[in-house]
Amino acid sequence: MSKLNDRVFGLVMLVIAVAYFYGATQFPVPFGGSEAVGPETFPKILGVVLAICSLYMIVKPDSDNHWPALRTFAELGIAVVVLVLYALLLEPLGFILATMLAVGTLCWRMGAKPLKAYLTGLISGAVVFVLFTYGLELPLPLGLLELN
């Protein structure tokens, strides 16, 4: 039964890999024509790597694995909800506040104390914001922190 777990998971990941690769091929051609390395290159590489790993899991499953406890599935569900909310709140709240909430909640769910978890989220959000905005000149949304 445990080999079936890996094979089912590998099959699900293979379907996701194919869909991801197909999605990457649908990216619009950049201005100036097609390039050897365009915006679709990295997603295509990820799709191929995921497909290879999935095929490996299907062909050679681990014989000593077990499904995780129900609590683990609940924690994974919470992480997915946090990431979806992060994507939805990125524009209205701004990068720094949304990152603070997302990273802080994920750190807290992984066992950190709430104050330290949200402080880590605030610092990481601020550092990444400065790096992107001033180092790479790629502006991130400020949201509620924008002064106008």
TrEMBL record:
Pfam families: TctB
Sorted UniProt keywords: Membrane, Transmembrane, Transmembrane helix
Sequence intervals crossing the membrane: 7-29, 70-89, 118-136
InterPro entries linked: DUF1468
Lineage top rank: taxon: Bacteria
Ranges of residues in domain DUF1468: 8-141
Protein name: Tripartite tricarboxylate transporter TctB family protein
Protein source organism: Salinicola endophyticus
Lineage, broadest ranks: Bacteria, Pseudomonadati, Pseudomonadota, Gammaproteobacteria, Oceanospirillales
